[in-house]
Amino acid sequence: MTQEERRSTTAARIAVGRLPQPRWVSVTPGARVTGLCDGCGEAIVPSDSAFKVVLHRTISLKFHDECFEVYNRAPDNHRAGLS
């Protein structure tokens, strides 16, 4: 999957509500995480630069850099009064 495909898949998951709103407690850039990216669903391998996001101290998400970029820029519907 290309970086642009990852971005598109992440944006689609946000749009349909498969990812929570990006209001995190802590963000760890450059984290050494492996497993599936919560943005695009593709594997994060040790050589990938990735982000670990912890929401409300209980939900932990993992993203490729480009997937986190999309997630981080998602509008906060709660602040916009759209929830």
Note the overall shape. Answer: globular
Could you spell the SSE succession in H and E letters? HEEEEEH
Q: Classify the secondary structure makeup into a structural class.
A: alpha+beta
Number of strands: 5
Give the amount of beta strand, in percent.
Answer: 25-35%
Largest sheet: 3 strands, antiparallel
Distance between the termini: 32 Å
**Number of domains in the coordinates?**
1
Give the key terms.
about 80 residues; alpha+beta; three-stranded antiparallel sheet; two-stranded antiparallel ribbon; 5 strands; about 25% strand; disordered C terminus
Quick take:
By secondary structure, this protein is of the alpha+beta class.
Describe the structure.
With 83 residues, the chain is α+β, with helices and mostly antiparallel strands. The chain is 25% helix and 27% strand. The protein has two helices and five strands. A hairpin with a 3-residue loop joins strand 4 (50-55) and strand 5. Residues 78-83 have low confidence and may be disordered.
Which secondary structure elements does this structure contain, and how are they paired or packed?
Blueprint (H helix, E strand, L loop, with lengths): L2 H13 L10 E6 L3 E2 L6 E2 L5 E6 L3 E6 H8 L11
